[in-house]
Amino acid sequence: MALKILYFAGLRETLGKTSEYLALPERVGSVGQLHAHLAARGGAWQALATTKNLRMAVNQEMATPDTPLQDGDEVAFFPPVTGG
Hints:
By secondary structure, the protein is α+β, with helices and mostly antiparallel strands. The protein has three helices and five strands. The protein has helices at residues 9-15, 31-39, 47-50; strands at residues 2-7, 19-23, 55-58, 61-62, 74-78.
């Protein structure tokens, strides 16, 4: 399965990228499993594991860790943002 992954706000700056295309191993079938897979890269990727209240979306709809993934999905990760 291959996905497009988007990173927003502070994650984008921490990771040094706005997006990537990624082929996933078969064991990654949900948003939560993708989250863990990315954080396991270590280094700056640990920001995915340590960001409080991290938000996730699949195909521009809010998602939970249990949301299943399908080939070609677009997954976005973003920290909560406050405005003023």
